Amino acid sequence: MPQSPSLFSADSYFSTQPPPSGLEHDISGVKEFVRRQKEKGRNVVLVTSGGTTVPLELNVVRFLDNFSAGTRGATSAEYFLKAGYAVIFMHRQFSLQPFSRHYSHSTNPFLDFLEIEPGTNMQPSSDVSDPGSMSSQICVTPNKRKDLLEVLTAYKAVHAAGTLHTLTFVTVNDYLWLLRAVSQELSVLKRKAMYYLAAAVSDFFLPRQKMSEHKIQSGKGSLHIEMDQVPKILKPMVDDWTGKDGFIVSFKLETDPALLVPKAQISLERYGHQVVIGNDLNRRKYEVVFISWKDALPPSSKGPNSDLSNPRYAESWLKIDPHDHNKEIEEDIVAELVKRHKIWITGAEASTK
Amino acid sequence: MPQSPSLFSADSYFSTQPPPSGLEHDISGVKEFVRRQKEKGRNVVLVTSGGTTVPLELNVVRFLDNFSAGTRGATSAEYFLKAGYAVIFMHRQFSLQPFSRHYSHSTNPFLDFLEIEPGTNMQPSSDVSDPGSMSSQICVTPNKRKDLLEVLTAYKAVHAAGTLHTLTFVTVNDYLWLLRAVSQELSVLKRKAMYYLAAAVSDFFLPRQKMSEHKIQSGKGSLHIEMDQVPKILKPMVDDWTGKDGFIVSFKLETDPALLVPKAQISLERYGHQVVIGNDLNRRKYEVVFISWKDALPPSSKGPNSDLSNPRYAESWLKIDPHDHNKEIEEDIVAELVKRHKIWITGAEASTK
Lengths: 353, 353
Description:
The structure is a homodimer. By secondary structure, the first copy, chain A, is an alpha/beta fold. Helix content of chain A is 33%, strand content 22%.
C-alpha cells in the first residue's frame, strides 16, 4: 500500500522535520549525567511529564495543547529520587517539577509564608548593598516551617548528590527529537535504565511544510485546521533507540472507562514493552491499572484481578483512599515499578551467568 | 442578511453557551471589592492577562491555546498598584501574577535561595508539632535578601490595603462571561474605572453543541477541526457593559509589522474606545505604539510621531533600551495611561460643573 504523503513513519518524520535548536547542548548534558551515574552503578529513570504543543503558525500565537499540569510526572520523580534512582526529568517548560510542585504560586504561594521581622540594630546600615544584614530579616511562618524544611532538605540532598537532571520541551517536535536522543544516550545502561513516559503527547501535528509564517488572520468566517497523525514512536523506542534492554512504562489516558483496559492491552501487544499504566481522567489521582505480560509477572502481584479471558496479559489494579489527603498514589506506583525493574535487571544478570 | 447559524453575536453567544459554574461566587466577590474602593474614592483598573483556551472535548484532553505567559498583565498590575490604583487581576489560571512573577519555578526557583541553618539548641524539641523553633532555621541567602525584601514588602502592603482582587479563567467561555459580569460591576465607578485588556483571547471557538463528549480518538488518519468565530465583545463592552464611561485600553498583537498600525487604527475606529496599544510579537518587550483619538490627545503627547496622513488618529511610540535589564516597559505604559485616565476623569468632572 503506497504511503500517502501525509502519513509519517518515525523515519520520515525525522528526515523532514527540523531538530530543535538546543538539541546538541541537551545531548551533551545528558551524556555527562549518564556517564556519572554509570560510574556509581545507579539505576536511571527517564521521567517525561506535561503536555506537548502543536504550533499553528511559525511565529507562534496559537497552538494545540494537551491537558497536563505534570502532577503525575513531577510527583513520581520525587519518589524515584527517594528510592535511590537518578532521574532525568524531561518536562514541558513551566509545568510542575519535583519539590517546587508543593509551592504552586496559585494554590500555595511561598510569599504567603514569609514574614518580615524588623531588625534590632538601630544604626543605619553602612553597607548599602546589603541593608538586609543590618535591618529587616525574612523568616518563615512557624506553622509552615516543618513541611518546608522537609522539602528543602530533600531538594538540597538531591542537588548535592547530582541525581536529578532536568530538560524541557514545548512542542511535540522538541519532544520527539529529545526523546530519541535521550533514549539513545541511556541505552548504554542497558537494563538499569527505566523509561517512565508520563507526558501527554499530541496525537496530531502540523508538519512544518503546512504551517503559515504569520498569525492566521481571523475575520474569514470559520477556521479549518487539518492535521496529520504524529508517528507512533513507541515502536522504534522499544526496537531500536533503547537498545532493546530498557524497562519501558507507558501511560494510557482515557475518558471512557470502557475503553481503558482494552486500549492498554492493545498498546502493550502492539509495541511489546514492559508495562502500560491505564488511567481514567476522572479517577487518576486514586486509581490506576497496570497491564503487563503474564509471563513477566512477579508472583506477589498475581491475584483475583487477573483477567482470565485475556491469558497473555496480567491486569493489576492499584487503588488508594480518595479521601486520604496525605497519600499520593505515585508513592505506590513507583514502589511497584521499582520492584518489577529489579526483577527485570536480575533476570538479565541470571541469564548471563 | 440572514445570520448563518454559526455566526455568533454577543447576544446569541450568551443565550446559547452556558455560564461557568463559579460565576455567581466571582460576581459577589467583585461587587464587595468595588464597593470598598468606591468608599475610598480609588480608581480601579481591571487587568486581564494570559491566554484563553478552546477545549476540543467536554472531558478536556485537548484544547487550542493562545501563547501568553501573562508577563504584560502581571507586570502592569504591579505598576498600577504602585500608582495607587486598586486592581482586579483577571488572569489565566497558573499564568504569571504580580509579585510572584519574579520567582518563576523554572527561571528563579525560590528553593534555591533558602538556606538551612542548624539549630544551636542541642536538646531535642519538646514541641513535636514545631521542631523548627528548636532546631534548624530556614533563612534567605544573603545576596538575595534585598530584592526579596522589596517584593515581599510591596506584596504585604497590597494585602494589608486590600487593593488587589484576583480572579481566574481558563476557557474563552469563562473569560467572556466573567468579562461581562466584572464590567457591569465596575460601571458604578463611571469614569474612575479603567479596563486594561491584555489577555490573549481566542478568535475561534467550538460551540458546546459541536463538542464531543469523549476524547477524540486518534487512528482515523487526519484530524479536521472546524471552528466558529468568537463574537467581538469590545462593541458591547464599550456601548453597554461599562456604562459608556470606562476608560478602555485594548491590545493588538501582530507578527507582521506592516499590519500593526493599520489594524490598531481599524480596531479603534470600529469600537470607539480610548486606546489601542499595538505590539509586534518580537519587539513587545521594548517597543509599543499607542493609537488613540487625536481630539482626546493631551498636548504633552503631541509630537513628531503623529501620523499626518491619518488625521483622526494619534500615533505615539513608546520605546525603551532593549539592553537595559533593570527597566520594564510596563512602567512607562502604566505611567502614560495614568496620565490619560486622569484627563478622562477630569474631563467628565469639568463637563458636569
